[in-house]
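Residues determine shape. We examine one folded chain.
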Amino acid sequence: MSIAQRTGMIWSPADDIDLLAVSVANDDGDAEIRAMLNINQAARDWLNGTISLMDYCDILQINDIPDPYEIVGEFCDHTELIMRAGL
């Protein structure tokens, strides 16, 4: 299911990182917080071109994201919708 299908709208964030960033709950522990920081830094690095898509997906998998290519696919699909809509 795509981002637009879940939200019912084509969301055009001010920063692309908002489509990839993850967060943790207030009661999550240190391991979850470290994973969130790793994932969000990897997303920023991939968007900036400092790491490859393969490296980004590897980092996601290391941090317990089971199907990173699904997330990347949703991001690319949503970005394409934004471009087609001229947003």
